[in-house]
Amino acid sequence: MMKELFQHTAITEGIVVRVAVNFLPEQSRVEAGKWFWVYHIRIENMSDHAVQLLTRHWRITDGQGLVNFVEGEGVVGEQPLLAPGESHDYVSGCPLTTPQGSMEGHYTFLRDDGEEIRAAIPFFPLAAPATAG
C-alpha cells in the first residue's frame, strides 16, 4: 500500500490534523462545470487525555470567492473516541463549480476532563491541473 503524503498539518492542544488532497478527474465533469476532489484526513491524539470528536465545521471557498459553510455531527457518520496516541483516518470529497478553491475549518472535541477543544483543520487549496483547451 502506498503511503499517502499529508501536505497540510495543524496542531491544537495536542490534537494533530493532517490533510492529503487529490483532484479526481474521473469524478469531475469539467465540460459541465463540475470539479471534484477527495481528501484524506488523519486525526492524531498526541495529548495526555482521551478526546471524542463531536462536530465538524468547514469553510469551503470556490474560485470566485463564494463561501459555503458545512457543519454537522462527527465525520462520515462517526464520532471517534481517541485515547492518547490513537489516530482516526477518514476520506471524504468536495465538489466545486470552479477549477480551484480552498477548504479550512475546525473540529470540536470533548476531552475526558470535560473541556471542549476547538481543533484547527489546516487551510488547504483545491486546484485542478490546467488542461489544454
Automatic annotation (TrEMBL):
Transmembrane segments: none annotated. Residues 9-133 form the ApaG domain. The lineage of its organism: Bacteria, Pseudomonadati, Pseudomonadota, Alphaproteobacteria, Sphingomonadales. The gene is apaG. NCBIfam families: PRK05461.1. It comes from Novosphingobium marinum. This is Protein ApaG. InterPro entries: ApaG-like (IPR050718), ApaG_domain (IPR007474), ApaG_sf (IPR036767), Uncharacterised_ApaG (IPR023065). PANTHER family: OS05G0170800 PROTEIN.
